[in-house]
Description:
Keywords: Ligase. The chain is α+β, with helices and mostly antiparallel strands. It has helices at residues 3-12, 42-47, 50-53, 67-70, 75-88, 101-124, 134-140, 148-158, 166-170, 189-196, 323-334, 377-390, 393-400, 417-427, 444-452, and strands spanning 20-24, 31-32, 38-39, 93-100, 176-180, 201-202, 205-207, 212-215, 228-230, 236-241, 262-263, 272-278, 286-298, 301-309, 312-314, 321-322, 342-352, 359-368, 409-413, 454-459. The chain folds into 3 domains: 3-202, no CATH class; 216-309, no CATH class; 315-459. The chain is built from 15 helices and 20 strands. An 8-stranded antiparallel beta sheet has the order 7-8-9-14-13-12-10-11, with no helix packed on it. The protein has a 4-stranded parallel beta sheet with strand order 1-4-5-6, with helices on one face. A 4-stranded mixed beta sheet has the order 17-18-19-20. Residues 245-255 have low confidence and may be disordered.
Amino acid sequence: MSLNYVMLCDSYVPGLDKGKGLYFLFVKSETKTPGGLLARPVLTSYYKSDHFKTRPYDPYNVYTSPNEAILCPDSFQSMYTQMLCGLYDRQQVLRVGAVFASGLLRAIRFLQLNWPQLVQDIRTGSLNPRITDPSVLECLSGIVRPEPELADFVEAECGKDNWEGIITRIWPNTKYLDVIVTGAMAQYIPTLDYYSGGLPLACTMYASSECYFGLNLNPMSKPSEVSYTIMPNMAYFEFLPHDPDSYSAGFNRNSTNPPKLVDLVDVEIGKEYELVITTYAGLYRYRVGDILRVTGFHNSAPQFHFVRRKNVLLSIDSDKTDEAELQKAVENASQLLREYNTSVVEYTSYADTKTIPGHYVIYWELLVKDPANAPSQTVLNQCCLAMEESLNSVYRQGRVADNSIGPLEIRVVKNGTFEELMDYAISRGASINQYKVPRCVSFTPIVELLDSRVVSVHFSPSLPHWTPERRR
């Protein structure tokens, strides 16, 4: 976060230069493209750069987490160290955050699971033997110290059954949470409100690995009202009027009727557009895949509300699974059912964020032609794993390396369930002639209907395959 932006937050929440930020920040594993180029998320590139590691002192950007913890590639050691340092500095913490809402909730879940060992370290001034990274050990040698009173306090708070408001109970001076809660992350807002006691949620910026897009100039606005002001010096921005029935396969340069792009200054308030960028790094008219709605202008720069990712059905963290990919995963998994003379009649899905980390739930209605030879629990568990193996590398990295996604779950429902689902949709006004089974559901009554028809539940029994290629 830049100095100017934190100073902007300071104009809404004074005194941010008088304390620290507890931010849970992590590097991700690097991979290589088939051509041998190094590939990694933009934040990993930034954290590993001298711009971050040797940044000058800035009173608005003092973190509780040491650089060594952020740069530690082992996710457990990194999280443990950042949490431990955050507990030692609990009175100085003025804001708590992570990149995504899911990341902050993962940190809270980590505290739920590991607070006894953290308390032991604080009480004795020792260190969990699982912390073995040399650079982390060196930096912690000047931080870890015996503080019995702090240990007693953390033990008393974390030992309670009720964790409502745990963030403000442990870090009492926290003024707001700094996390992205727009788009797919909005599903985490109720859980964040529960753990924080309703602290304001500051959605600070709109960016991706391809480009930095814009800022929220009203950082304390409600998440549903957040608009990002495009920064025209970051790239050349163009906008494709959103029409879900046209150009779904991308630009066709040979078409006689190419899509008509709208320039930055010509967008119209209230209309929706797909973002297209040309960057200094060499991307030319790259379709980001984000659908934005124009809400106004700041001087001549348009402001946008993030509507959704185009064609994305499921997302827990930084993963994005579309309908075609989900269909392929179901097809691959259903191959395991053939020898049992069983097939998948219908399916739908949703992203379950009630657990931490969240996970994909897939509802299957099966046609079992020979009940005496029905697929076993073990076979259906393997179907879960087969689906995970079919999903993209970002999903599998979240499962294997980042621990940001839980095991995929298949819930088998009674025969006729999807007919009931259609009946419900028709009762609410859907056309029987145009009805299609939704491949992703989020409407609570529909999820409750599906859950009431579940006959068996299955989880992926192991991690899918994911191995990064590291630089030699």
